What does this fold into?
Amino acid sequence: SQKIEQNSEALNIQEGKTATLTCNYTNYSPAYLQWYRQDPGRGPVFLLLIRENEKEKRKERLKVTFDTTLKQSLFHITASQPADSATYLCALYNDYKLSFGAGTTVTVRA
Amino acid sequence: DVKVTQSSRYLVKRTGEKVFLECVQDMDHENMFWYRQDPGLGLRLIYFSYDVKMKEKGDIPEGYSVSREKKERFSLILESASTNQTSMYLCASLNLEMRGEQFFGPGTRLTVL
It folds into this structure.
C-alpha cells in the first residue's frame, strides 16, 4: 500500500540551530514533492516544491533535498527562529492530487 | 492576493443532521479538494473535482457527497452527520500552472454531538 511517513511527530530545537525533517514514501512515483507549513487552527501554506529530477532546492533559510532512489526528502530550516515553530507537512503530487504525510511539529526555543 | 474562503470557522451539529460546508476560491482554478484533518492521521482526501459538475472520490468518501455547480464553489455535504465526522475540514484549490501548489482555506472545525 502507499505510505508517506514523516520522521517524528515533534522536534524541539534551540534557536539558531538547524532543524532537519524527514519524509519517506513507499509505492509512489511522484512527479514532484512539496512542503507546507501549518500553524494551529489554520490551513497549510505552500513553502517549496522540488521536482523528481532536482536534487536540491533553496528558499531563504529553507532547503529541500529529494532522493528518488531512497524515496526520501529532507527539509532543513537553518538558523531557526521561534517564529519557525509550526507543523510541517510533506506532500507528493501525482495524478492531479496531493497525498500528505501526518506532519512534524517543530518547536524552536529562544 | 489569492483566496480560498470557507463558510464557517466553527460549526456544531447534532447526529443525523444534514450539514453543508461551502468553499469559494477567487483564482479561477479548475481543481478543488476537500480534506479532513485529524491528529496523527494528517490530511485525508475526501473528494475532489476537476471541473464544474465533475467529482471524483478521494481516499475516504463514505458518508460524504459534494457539489460543484460553479467553478469557484465546491460544497461538501454530510448527508447524516455522525460523531466520527467530528474533525477539521479543509478546502483547497490547485494551481496546475504552478505544478500542483495548493491554496487552502482556513478550515472549518466541525463538532457533531
